[in-house]
Design goal:
mainly alpha, two-stranded antiparallel sheet
């Protein structure tokens, strides 16, 4: 049981190392028309209402899927591998994330591109291992389940969770035409995601904003300068840790009491008992050279009537 309790706190944080070498976003340096359609906004604002949101979502999903289908069905080198008219993992969840829930972390470029690609690589790799068996057709459903499970874990550990990626992993094992493609399927997945992202950059940035970020919502410049450690948490969000800043903040939070002849300075959060207040008052009188050192003043911890208390900042 002790091992299980310790495991609850385990975290794999690849961003702790990656974010230190990734350069900050250069979008603010580009001409406004270009930076706008790459998702940059000088001043952030709320998304449009759901009426306009529904319109742009409809238009984006139609245009995105139409562009992918047109490219796939009219490119000879792609048609040589006999792909489906539309790969199923593009039909539903990806279109919704890229053109509807555009502020969701699950639909940002890092998650969409890397989540799909990683899942496709895992799906094809697992499927090839299962195809070494002569009875693959009978057990390919196991290959699909294993692929989806491993892809789900890999996306969480790498901070690239993208739900449609699970479908890509399953299709690599269960769809005969995709299974026959082998590693070529990974390239098709990447091409399809890129096409959908390009359409999203155009459609979503007319009145909305997409993406909200390309790699992380936190500042990469601070990550480089202050060694901020940024990584995925268990809920699909992000958490920020900075050991250096935490040490600095802990030092700054040390409570200080200043005693001089003119008064006693106490921190705002410090409450004193009557005995402690009396001791501080005696010390103040000694510093002031007061002849009434032996006199005792009963000072409540919440009152400043008997001594001067100036909150420290």
């Amino acid at each position: 049981m002790a091992f299980v309790r310790e495991a609850e706190a385990w975290n794999v944080d690849i961003d702790r190392h990656i974010n230190r070498i990734i350069p900050p976003s250069p979008l603010h340096r580009l001409p406004p028309p270009i930076s706008r359609f790459l998702g940059y906004r000088q001043h952030q604002k709320q998304d449009v209402g759901n009426v306009l949101g529904a319109f742009w979502s409809l238009l984006g999903a139609f245009c995105g899927l139409a562009v992918v289908a047109a490219v796939f069905n009219n490119t000879k080198i792609i048609q040589m591998h006999h792909p489906p008219a539309l790969i199923a993992s593009y039909k539903g969840a990806s279109a919704i994330l890229e053109y509807n829930a555009i502020r969701s972390p699950l639909g940002q470029p890092r998650n969409a591109l890397l989540g799909h690609t990683l899942s496709a690589v895992i799906g094809v790799g697992i499927t090839k291992l299962f195809r070494l068996r002569s009875d693959f057709e009978k057990i390919k459903w196991i290959a699909g389940a294993v692929s989806c499970g491993i892809a789900s874990a890999a996306m969480l550990l790498t901070g690239t969770v993208h739900p449609p990626g699970g479908a890509s992993a399953v299709l690599a094992a269960t769809s005969p035409e995709i299974t026959e493609m082998g590693w070529y399927f990974v390239g098709l997945i990447m091409l399809g995601v890129l096409l959908m992202l390009i359409v999203g950059l155009i459609i979503n940035n007319i009145q909305r904003q997409f993406p909200i970020y390309w790699w992380t919502p936190l500042s990469l410049r601070e990550a480089r300068e202050k060694d901020i450690e940024i990584g995925p948490d268990g809920t699909g969000g992000l958490q920020e840790r900075n050991e250096h800043l935490e040490e600095t903040e802990s030092e700054e939070k040390i409570l200080q009491i200043t005693i001089s002849g003119s008064g006693v300075t106490l921190p705002d959060t410090l409450a004193l008992s009557s005995e402690e207040s009396e001791l501080l008052e005696r010390l103040r009188h000694r510093l002031a050279g007061d002849s009434l050192v032996s006199s005792r003043h009963s000072i409540s911890s919440g009152s400043s009537a008997s001594m001067t208390m100036v909150p420290s900042h």
